[in-house]
Amino acid sequence: MTDVNIATQMLLDAFNNRFDKALLISADADLVPPVRAIREQYPEKGITVAFPPNRYSGDLKRAANGFVYINRSDISQSQFPPKVEKDDGFTLERPSTWV
Description:
- By secondary structure, this protein is of the alpha/beta class.
- It contains four helices and five strands; from the N terminus they run αβαβαβαββ.
- The chain has a three-stranded parallel β-sheet. Strands 4-5 form a two-stranded antiparallel ribbon.
- Helix 1 (2-15) runs parallel beside helix 2.
- The chain is elongated, with a radius of gyration of 17 Å.
- The mean pLDDT is 94.
């Protein structure tokens, strides 16, 4: 149901004028219909698709206004350090698998 939830929220946000530009992080071609619908009904709104590492959809790329690729180094550089200590002394630790 994730695709349906994303599509529904995108359409509602467009209808309620909650964005001018949207960034959709996905490579799921199931999201082509809502992207097309938003572009047809609200041509002033822009939708850019960000493809996760090793994921791509030509149909989604063509449906959107633009696209970018997210590579693994982008994700690594965007993470918190392995350990973060909160003000109360509690330490949050990043899972070792998140490299």
